[in-house]
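pasting for ref
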Amino acid sequence: MSVDYQYFGAASVKVASEVAHREAGPTSGAAKRVGKRKVSKKDRAAAPTFMVVDAPTIDPFVVAGTLTSLLTGRAYDDIVDDLDWGDVVAEGPTGHLVIATTDAFLKALATSDDATLAAVAEPWSHTDELEGASAADLAAKLKELAALARATKADKARLYCWVGSVSPG
């Protein structure tokens, strides 16, 4: 088992929270149960779908904090001390979590151009948590995350991260 991180935008905490109950995160269909409540087929069919960036190396705590620091120039400690940094908004029955990212994280990604993202990927790739990751691969993933952040911001939504366990291949 390994941990997977999937970033997605949602219009509200309520909508994002439902994703914690999905079997494989925001890319999978709506859950049949939310807590003890059974979800009807009609409600499952009407459940929202999400634009998702699968980012298995980018945890929403340390690695995302370092990224935010690099993009904004703010000290890492100041970023992770923000009151809403790493807020767990939901936990599913199998331990899957949905974490709310901060407005600073969303804004930093949404306003960064490709050249900035590529420039940040190099020092980011040298952090302990990303040891062995190539700067080019990280820059490509940052472009995906930035596109998601721009779409999320345009929708006046918030960026979330689903954290779950996945079986290897």
